[in-house]
Specification:
By secondary structure, the chain is of the alpha/beta class. About 30% of the residues lie in helices and about 25% in strands. The protein contains ten helices and 15 strands. Strands 3, 4, 5, 6, 7, 14 and 15 form a seven-stranded mixed sheet that branches. A six-stranded parallel sheet has the order 10-9-8-11-12-13, with helices on both faces. It has a two-stranded antiparallel ribbon with strand order 1-2. α2 crosses α3 and α2 packs across α8. The two termini are about 15 Å apart.
């Protein structure tokens, strides 16, 4: 088969479309013929040499895919050859075939194009696990999403609105904020021109955000704590703004607030299986019914993964950028 390899870390040109051995499914695994994958920030970090795959995972980038079941390994039930699926991966999505633990497979939702289903696994699992399983967002509460026009952001807006929450977002352009508004965002903050602390406080009558989904890390840590409501929950899922920040513990104590920080890729199989099962139970009915949708900016041939990485690094996209196997 062919796959994107990274002979040496570097810029987008480090991604090479190469002939590699076919993977073979083991106990409890399924072999999937990949139709599409999607670009995630973790793929860029891996390409740069900063984020190695966890032990035992494929060395090729790609944390999600969609496609068809080619073969099932020993001990697999509930899936058959030819099933159209999408999958959460620890790696290997940038390839024509990938082996997936059966517990990380999801059926393609009704009415969703098979290629576009590649945009769903990572964002739905990340948002559901952080915003709902850990932070317990409830109807009537306010969620602040940083990077509202990203793949994660566009899904977080929709899921929060689906459960009856109010949504605030930050984004860097008027056009991106307009996309967020179309998905249901109530409070729109241009982080280049406005202070999200002041804007969210004003829009919530001084209360602040009950849950914050943060992709920035250190850069926003202090201001996120300022923005939290009493009993608020800050969920950190990224480090685009650095890894070391100063935390005002007195402010945190005064608000009886909580901070969580998670990654998805390196979690044990049992944890990822539980998250995927929860997503299938709670999110898939919303997708099946058309209440929530995948937001895809563009599709690019997988052999030209370098071009896709450039698009994501320039942050000119809304939603997900897909890599399509031709």
């Amino acid at each position: 088969m062919r796959a994107i390899t990274i002979p040496e870390p570097g810029g987008p040109e480090a991604l090479v479309w190469s002939e590699v051995p076919d993977p073979v499914p083991g106990e409890g695994e399924v072999l999937v013929e990949v139709v599409a994958s999607a670009v995630n920030r973790a793929d860029i970090l891996q390409r740069q040499g900063f984020y190695n795959p966890p032990p035992g995972a494929s060395l090729y980038p790609g944390l999600e895919c969609s496609g068809r079941v080619l073969e099932t390994g020993p001990g697999v039930s509930g899936w058959a050859v030819g099933d159209e699926v999408c999958a959460l991966l620890a790696g290997g999505g940038y390839a024509e075939k990938v082996v997936v633990p059966a517990g990380q497979l999801l059926p393609v939702p009704k009415g969703v194009d098979l290629r576009q289903a590649a945009a769903l696994p990572e964002v739905t699992c990340t948002v559901w696990s952080n915003v709902f399983m850990i932070s317990h967002l409830r109807p009537g509460e306010t969620l602040l999403v940083h990077g509202g026009s990203s793949g994660i952001g566009t899904m977080a807006i929709q899921l929060a609105k689906a459960v009856g929450a109010k949504v605030a977002v930050t984004a860097g352009t008027k056009e991106k904020l307009e996309h967020c508004a179309q998905l249901g965002a109530d409070i729109l903050v241009n982080y280049r021109e406005q202070d999200f602390v002041a804007e969210v406080k004003q829009a919530t009558g001084g209360a602040g955000a009950d849950v914050i989904l943060d992709n920035m890390g250190a850069k926003y840590l202090d201001r996120n704590v300022q923005t939290l409501a009493v009993n608020g929950r800050l969920a950190i899922i990224g480090m685009q703004g650095g890894i070391k920040g100063e935390l005002n513990i007195a402010a945190l104590l005064g608000k009886r607030a909580a901070i969580s920080a998670t990654s998805l890729r390196a979690r044990p199989l049992a944890e990822k299986t539980a998250i995927v099962a929860a997503v299938r139970e709670h999110v898939w009915p919303l997708l099946d019914g058309g209440h929530v949708r995948a937001v895809v900016d563009r599709e690019i041939p997988m052999s030209d993964a370098a071009a896709a990485h450039r698009v994501v690094e320039e942050s000119g996209h809304v939603g997900k950028v897909l890599l399509v196997v031709e």
